[in-house]
Write a structure and sequence with these properties.
Helix 1 packs parallel to helix 6. By secondary structure, the protein is an alpha+beta fold. It has six helices and 14 strands. It has two domains: 77 residues, Phosphorylase Kinase, domain 1; 136 residues, 2-Layer Sandwich (D-amino Acid Aminotransferase, Chain A, domain 1). Bound molecules: uridine-5'-diphosphate (UDP). The site of uridine-5'-diphosphate has 14 residues, from strand 9, helix 2, strand 12 and strand 14.
Length: 236
């Protein structure tokens, strides 16, 4: 049935997408390949794909229970997830609770300061341009989504943040920031892609140590250990 993997539709930096016999379902295969700085830095994080698949499953289930529509259907095995086939909106949506990463750099702000209320940013999903920060006017100019959909994306992103923040807090992690991608599915907007240590910043509540891809970006060591620890706290 739908579990038969068909032709590969797309290969990204961290995932492959395969057709199934059901035109409305695709398989997301999670790789161990890691990239950073617009793919200038490349490497492997052993068993990252397994961690990201399982963590994403747990978080998609949590969000569905909280009323957020997602593309998640079921996890098939260690590295594969069955999802609804969507047309990805080419916008990376970032939600920030704490100053870190490109925000600290761009605005000269100190890492670690709380942002209240949280902020939402949009980036144009375009590798050739290096995923530039864009405004709602740029989204309209580029015809990426209409203003109604942008409003919907922002509301959903903040709702997702309200659902995820206490979930991680209970697991002694601080959700610093994260990136979301949305897709169009049968006329509605649903959450797609993944939510994992590749796409979020998590800090240990006590030590404030990074438990995410920043360990790879900044060569902090103990990368695999950090991913396994996230899996344990989220799914254990
Ligand atoms: N992020 C992502 N994919 C990207 C860029 C960012 O998943 O292509 C995530 C990143 O892991 C972090 C958040 O989005 O959790 C904000 O990233 P930031 O803008 O600070 O960029 P970075 O410092 O990662 O370049």
């Amino acid at each position: 049935m739908t579990l038969m993997k068909g032709t590969m539709l797309y290969e990204g930096k961290a995932k492959k997408i395969f057709e199934t016999v059901d035109p409305d379902r695709v398989i997301q295969y999670f790789k161990d390949d890691a990239t950073a700085f617009n793919a200038q830095k490349k490497g492997t994080i052993v068993e990252k794909g397994i961690v990201n698949n399982k963590v994403s499953e747990r978080l998609f289930r949590l969000l569905e229970e909280g009323g957020v529509p997602t593309h998640f259907v079921e996890r098939l095995n260690d590295r594969e997830m069955l999802t609804k086939k969507v047309r990805i909106v080419p916008i990376e949506v970032v939600v920030r609770n704490i100053i870190a990463g490109s925000l600290a750099k761009r605005l000269g702000l100190k890492e670690g300061e709380a942002i209240a209320p949280p902020i939402v940013e949009f980036y144009y999903k375009n590798d050739a341009l290096g995923d530039p920060l864009i405004t709602e006017e740029h989204i309209r100019l580029l015809n990426l989504a209409d203003p109604g959909m942008v409003g919907q994306i922002k509301d959903l992103a903040l709702k997702i943040n309200r659902l995820l923040t206490p979930f991680f807090q209970e697991r002694t992690m601080i959700l610093v920031d994260f990136k979301l991608e949305f897709g169009r599915h049968k006329g509605s907007l649903i959450l797609a892609d993944e939510i994992s240590p590749d796409t979020c910043r998590f800090w240990d509540q006590k030590t404030k140590e990074s438990m995410d891809k920043d360990r790879f970006r900044k060569d902090l060591g103990k990368i695999e250990e950090a991913y396994q620890e996230v899996l344990k706290r989220v799914c254990g």
